[in-house]
Amino acid sequence: MGARSFGAVALAVVVAGLAVTRVLDNQYYYFAGYVVLQYVVLATAWNILGGYTGYVNFGTPAFFALGAYTAVVLIQSLKAPLAIQLVAGAIISGLLGLALGYLTLRLRGVFFSIATLALAVVLQTMFINWEYTGGARGITLVRPASAPLFGNYVQFLFVVMLGLAVLAVATAWWIERSWIGRGLTAIRDNEEAAECMGVPTLRLKLVATTVSGVLMGLAGAPFPYYVTFVEPTSVFDLNYAVNSLAMPMIGGSTTWIGPVIGAVLLGTAQQIATVTISSALNLLLVGLILVAFVILAPEGIVGLVQRLARRSGERTRRSGV
Amino acid sequence: MSAEAFLDVQGVTKRFGGFQALSAVSLQVRQGERFGLIGPNGSGKTTLINCISGTLRTDGGRIVFADQDITTLPAHRRTRLGIARSFQIPKPFTSMTVLQNLMIPIEYAGRGHRDGVVDEAMGILGLMGLAAKAHVPSAALTQIEMRKLELARAMAARPRLLVSDEAMAGLSSTEVDDILAILFELNQRGITIVMIEHIMRAVMRFSERIAVLDAGEKIAEGGPDEILADKRVEKAYLGE
Ligand SMILES: Nc1ncnc2c1ncn2[C@@H]1O[C@H](COP(=O)(O)OP(=O)(O)OP(=O)(O)O)[C@@H](O)[C@H]1O
Ligand SMILES: [Mg+2]
């Protein structure tokens, strides 16, 4: 997709989102849509490091929660507006991403992944013991009653998350097409060969971990106002780690559209399952779908479609002769 | 000596745990030279190349390239200075096509994307007999084609010093001759070449000077005839 058509689609998505807030009144759809969009951001962010660069991060909850708790602190101390919460959450989580990038100097493969898991556990323990943000009990926040131009604050948050999703996807789209993306692919394929072919592997990995961290922090920052009650167990939920990994894997991890497809399908399925069956089943649902994909279509939906298209193309060519 | 050395390896030492893989190895390669590096299996040839290209850090000694101390420089910076190497065990970028594999060094080894780079890459592939495979995923190549890709990719970095680590293993004798002709041609254009090879016929024909490693030590250095006549070299290869 060229830059112009990508920009047009992005604009259309935002306009459509705004239009919806003018006609649709049922609050449930905004609550559910927000969660799906939040997963678009998380899955896209995860994929920049996991899919493009090949470093599997189990620590999504750490970055998400850091964004959320940064917002909590700013609300508690300064009553800072949402824009400030977003910027601060992005910076703090981005710094954590940068630190994680330096870890790739020493840790590769499964050892890196285990370290990211440990990172989430350590941060969770810290927040459990930090009274200022409510400790283990959690903290209740008062959501502003309304937002200018939007009236309803939840509708406003929905549109904000839509904007963040567009920002995240545009970032991934750009990286994929740039020299950075080609370098990241070389790192994923063979880091030693990449370095020997002139790719500054450390610098590119720092870019990937930082950008990924920034986007995850952005996803977490509006969360306190969305739920109005933040506790360690909910922001450090295993769901974030599993979903942000499973969604790109199911959609297809080599291209920007893969995580979007995965997040929309799986995120929507989970929202429906939560209403119709129970929320406890979500993780089981994701697990089963993930296992099925890893076995049957390891390149995800995008890869599957490409493979089928290629095959039918060959068949037409053969029957045409 | 070191004033005219293009690549100056000074007393390089490398240990893996308690195992001494290189013991104070020194050698000088002159600009434009064809230099052979030989030695029995496990004698430390690849380890020395890893130290020169920067994928391993030395535990002692100094490496100077084109009058610059590169001992602690990261590998990608050395590539940009003009050192390119092929890998003994092929390490292609498996998710890319053969042509895309060459575009990485072309883009990253300091020259950027310009007009004509695809032609340049296709030219290299033609030289290596890989032109027909340009758009094939590199993972689908045979082992022998992957070796050729290794050399092609190193050439795409436009090196001033090309290190080829057993690029000819497994090739037929006509293919060996083809690759030798290409390396001679590159050398004619001014590229300094260090060749590691077990195929004696090839190294002896190609090299102006040869260094011999045995158990991490340099045991001999000289012209092909001197090396062939050297008693210690014979002993290293044939045993007592
Ligand atoms: N990363 C490593 N860790 C531990 N030992 C290593 C490592 N790399 C090489 N060695 C050991 O160092 C010695 C020298 O290995 P090297 O690969 O340099 O030999 P070589 O001369 O290239 O041999 P060959 O002709 O078989 O390619 C061997 O004993 C090898 O087992
Ligand atoms: Mg070797």
Label the CATH architecture of chain A. Answer: Orthogonal Bundle
Helix proportion range of chain A: over 70%
Distance between the termini of chain B: 34 Å
Instruction: Output the strand order for the largest sheet of chain A.
Output: 1-4
What would you report as the Rg of chain A, rounded to the nearest angstrom? Answer: 20 Å
How would a crystallographer describe the biggest sheet of chain B? 6 strands, mixed
**Strand fraction band of chain B?**
25-35%
The CATH superfamily of the largest domain in chain B bears the name P-loop containing nucleotide triphosphate hydrolases
Overall shape of chain A: it is: globular
CATH architecture annotation of the largest domain in chain B: 3-Layer(aba) Sandwich
What is the string of helix and strand elements of chain A?
A: HHHHHEEEHHHHHEHHHHH
Mean pLDDT of chain A, nearest integer?
90
Question: What percentage of amino acids of chain A are in beta strands?
Answer: under 5%
Seen as an oligomer or otherwise, the chain set is heterodimer
Structural descriptors:
heterodimer, A: 321 residues, mainly alpha, ABC transporter involved in vitamin B12 uptake, BtuC, two-stranded antiparallel sheet, two-stranded antiparallel ribbon, 15 helices, 4 strands, 2% strand, B: 240 residues, alpha/beta, Rossmann fold, 10 strands, 38% helix, globular, binds adenosine-5'-triphosphate, binds magnesium ion
Structural notes for this entry:
The complex is a heterodimer of chains A (321) and B (240). Chain A has one domain (3-320): ABC transporter involved in vitamin B12 uptake, BtuC (Orthogonal Bundle), CATH 1.10.3470. Chain A contains 15 helices and four strands. Chain A has helices at residues 3-23, 27-52, 60-78, 82-103, 109-128, 153-177, 179-189, 191-196, 201-220, 223-227, 232-235, 238-251, 257-276, 282-296, 300-320; strands at 139-140, 146-147, 151-152, 229-230. Chain A is globular, with a radius of gyration of 20 Å. The two termini of chain A are 31 Å apart. Chain B has nine helices and ten strands. Chain B has helices spanning 45-53, 75-81, 98-111, 117-127, 143-156, 173-188, 200-206, 224-229, 231-238; strands spanning 5-16, 19-30, 34-38, 60-65, 68-69, 83-85, 161-165, 192-196, 209-214, 217-222. In chain B, the strands form two sheets. Chain B has a six-stranded mixed sheet, sandwiched between helices. A four-stranded antiparallel sheet of chain B has the order 2-1-4-5, with helices on one face. The model of chain B has no long low-confidence stretch (mean pLDDT 90). Chains A and B meet through helix 7 and helix 8 of A and helix 2 and helix 3 of B. Magnesium ion binds next to helix 1 of chain B.
